[in-house]
């Protein structure tokens, strides 16, 4: 049976656990990069290639955890829709389906409790369809990031090059091998990771169209999380309240007053701040 209080508590616990897990994996990945740099410096390229595959998989997982965290915060911000409506509102349907899909594929046990609450709310059939993605409502980036697969050899080379550059190791991939890998690309490519020094990205094939499309149109793997926010009108903002300022005593400074805390009074994430986080994650593409 659906319990709103338990669902909200488990969502908050999931957000905290997701943040802790991301920090832990980032620290371990940084240590792994240092070890890979030492292997490249020692000329042990094959060992470095094997170890960098684990770094790539961890980077995929970290990005998936970040997206799931944002979805949990979105459900907290829109918890009224989750609690009051009998059917899943379009404004949260992608978040609900993605969390149900990702819960058993992640290392966060609190997400399993959230999944059980969502299944109790919308029915077992709804949860089964989300697990199998029958309605294609699950975020495609989550499916890509959590998929068990061998990293692309071209991506392995790019990781090794960026790790060598970051730790000032004299190593470059064989240009002839890269040319062969690029020439063997067939079909549609889904960008696996973000642009950054630690997370390089494979170049996209040249489009046949003469005019260069806009960056947002060519990004096949852009983040569509903002569709949840735009499909529902912004909630009315509460009227600003004025608080009587205490009379200033001689010698007392008013600059020491603490700024108002962000978010709602019950600890829920602020909707405007959450929207900015979605925008920032999309801009990283």
Tell me about this structure:
The chain is built from 12 helices and no strands. It is mostly helical. The radius of gyration is 23 Å and the shape is elongated.
Number of strands: 0
**Poorly predicted ranges (pLDDT <50, ≥5 residues)?**
183-262
Work out the strand percent. Answer: under 5%
Share of residues in helices: 55-70%
Shape: elongated
Rg over C-alpha atoms, rounded to the nearest angstrom = 23 Å
Secondary-structure element series:
HHHHHHHHHHHH
Major beta-sheet overview: none
Q: Number of helical segments? A: 12
Counting helices, strands and paired strands, the structural category is mainly alpha
Mean pLDDT: 76
**Terminal-residue CA separation:** 40 Å
List keywords for this structure.
285 residues; mainly alpha; 12 helices
């Amino acid at each position: 049976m659906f319990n709103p209080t338990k669902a909200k508590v488990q969502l908050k616990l999931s957000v905290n656990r997701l943040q802790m897990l991301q920090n832990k994996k980032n620290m371990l990945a940084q240590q792994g990069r240092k070890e890979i740099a030492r292997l490249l410096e020692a000329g042990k390229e094959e060992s470095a290639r094997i170890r960098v595959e684990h770094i790539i998989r961890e980077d995929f997982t970290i990005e998936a955890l970040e997206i799931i965290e944002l979805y949990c915060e979105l459900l907290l911000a829109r918890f009224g829709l989750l609690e009051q409506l009998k059917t899943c509102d379009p404004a949260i349907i992608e978040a609900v389906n993605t969390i149900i899909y990702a819960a058993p594929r992640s290392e966060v046990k609190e997400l399993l409790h959230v999944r059980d609450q969502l299944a109790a709310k919308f029915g077992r059939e709804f949860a089964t369809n989300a697990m199998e993605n029958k309605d294609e409502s699950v975020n495609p980036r989550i499916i890509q990031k959590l998929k068990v697969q061998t990293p692309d050899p071209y991506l392995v080379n790019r990781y090794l090059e960026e790790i060598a550059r970051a730790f000032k190791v004299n190593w470059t991939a064989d240009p002839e091998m890269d040319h062969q890998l690029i020439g063997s690309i067939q079909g549609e490519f889904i960008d696996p990771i973000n642009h950054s020094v630690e997370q390089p990205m494979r170049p996209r094939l040249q489009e046949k169209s003469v005019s260069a499309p806009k960056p947002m149109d060519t990004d096949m793997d852009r983040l569509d999380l903002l569709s949840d926010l735009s499909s529902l009108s912004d909630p009315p903002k509460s009227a600003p309240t004025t608080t009587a300022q205490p009379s200033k005593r001689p010698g007392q400074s008013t600059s020491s007053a603490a700024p108002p805390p962000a978010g709602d009074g019950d600890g829920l994430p602020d909707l405007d701040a959450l929207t900015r986080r979605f925008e920032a994650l999309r801009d990283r593409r």
